[in-house]
Amino acid sequence: NGSIMMQPPHVSSLNLFKQEKSNWNLFPKFNPCDNQNKNKITTTSMNESAMSTPEGDSEENDKTAKKIAGRKKRVVAGYSIVQYSYLLFGCIIVAKTRTPYYGTGPFVAAGVAHILKDAATNNRLSSDTYKRLNLVL
Q: What residue ranges in 50-136 does DSSP mark as E strands?
């Protein structure tokens, strides 16, 4: 006869859905309580910790840590200086004008410097929020 029997569209799409659903289990599920996975994780962490570092690297790491600590102290000191200078400037403006309204700008800047100083002591200056605050200051 040469004619092709076609199924109604809803039947063929249902069969296609069943075929796709059977292929969903291609990837095994990760079970953290599985003993095989625990052995893999433990073996990997033990291999990484067993790697020895040359003594030259530890000296370089110590130098780098000292440089970072010194830089951190300078940054905190800089923000402290900025904070107290803005506070002093705001107090001078309030004392001269006898109007607290004019001293609010330096007081807000001193508050921002205090926030940035706190972020520097807690190693949070790399956050986008503190980068923006630094630009504002």
A: none
